[in-house]
Structure formats: C-alpha cells, structure tokens
Hints:
single chain; 182 residues; alpha+beta; nine-stranded mixed β-sheet; globular
Amino acid sequence: MEKRMNYTLVFRQPRQKVDRALPFTNEEELNAFIEKHEHLLAWYNVENTKNFIYFEPNEGGRHKNDCVIRALTKYTGVEYGRIYKTLLRRYPNSTYKRYNNVIKEGKRIGLVPYYLRHDIDIRDIAENLKHTKALVLQRGHLVAIEKGNIYDNGTQALGLKNEVIMLKPQHANEWLEKVARI
C-alpha cells in the first residue's frame, strides 16, 4: 500500500525528551488531531512533507523492525515475502538489520555506498536524487528513495541522521560527490 502524506506533525509530549512525528494525508485530519490532543503536546510544529509516501508492502501487516525488507522491496521491486525469506536464510536471528550486513546486501545488488556528512537532511537527499533510486541508511533505519520521494512506513526518517546513500555508480551526481565520500 502506498499513500502520499502531505503533512507531518512533529511534537513533544510533556516530560519526554524525544520528539515524535506523525504523518497526515490532509489538513482536516491534521487539525482534528491537534484539536483533540493539544493538551497532551508540550510543543508542536507542522511540516510540509509532500514527498513523503507511506509505504507498507506487506499485506499481512508489518513485522517488527522490517525497514530493511521494505526498502529493498521498493528498490528492487521483488515481493516482500521473498526478500524476507532470503535475508533470514542468509542472516539467522535477524542479523540482516546490522549496519555491515545492510551495506553487504546493497553491494550484493550492485550498489555503491557513499558515506555522508551528518548534517544532510533526508528531504535534501530526495530532492537532489530525484532522477534515480537510492537506499539511505540512517542510524539503524533503511529508507528507499525514488524519483524524489521518500518511501517509509513512519516518519522516523525525517528526524534521523543520514549516514550512507547506496545507489548504482552511474547514478551518482555532482551534488552527491560534494556531500559524500566512497
């Protein structure tokens, strides 16, 4: 299932140290949530996220921590269940989620990792790679980017530090060469 999310509400609850984010498809839905829950929000900000697409390829419901499978499904076009079974065969005990194993799987399908400075926002990456597909590895989270859109099943990608972009070497561009190293 794919659904374009136009707004993201970034907020913090009282006595919490971490910001949270929720995506919304339209302004009415967003305003209704704020009106109903404003007393629970220490602060909030609304961000325009028209290039964020909610992506949940597993029709049976999501598995816990399945971002690697979702991102690879979007990038390769291979069915979710097939990728899931393949990765579990290669990496028992779900170790496919580990940083080095994600890089190894990217290389296995012909991708080159570009290591980023930490001040690059995921929206900048999507904007500057809008003519190609890529995988972006963040602190323990993998996201697919295609044609300038961010594909994820939550908005955690919007607040995380970006560490590595993986894409086919022929799709690297001038912007990427400035902000990354191989």
